[in-house]
Write the structure tokens for this entry.
Amino acid sequence: MRQLFVKKLRDTAVLPSRATPGSAGYDLYADLPSALVIHPQEIVKVPTGIAVAIPDGEAVGLIYARSGLASKYGIAPANCVGVVDSDYRGELLVPLANHSPRAYVIEPGDRVAQLVLAPVYLPELCEVEELDETSRGKGGFGSTSR
């Protein structure tokens, strides 16, 4: 995959961008007509004003929190990580949850999340009667007991 096609759905939309050459993700920007308040324990869908075409069968788009918003203000995607399938062509919306006790204001053009592209591995699904044995087996669900 060498190109990610991005369509601006509104003139006010900001194209995703990488903050530094080493950034793994593309910052996503709020495309809002005015400031948006996220009250404590509230979830809002923040429009980005863009749609993307991820190469079919090669990759998935993953929408992650911006670490500064999450760690400083308690603002993070409501679904932890959003999944953008390669056949989706609608607007990217970021459902943000306010986990803090204070209201938070998103301004038009604010960076609200990051889009990371990752390869997709789609093996053939095969139903079996038994699975191979491992030294761990069924033990340690939720922990490796260490």
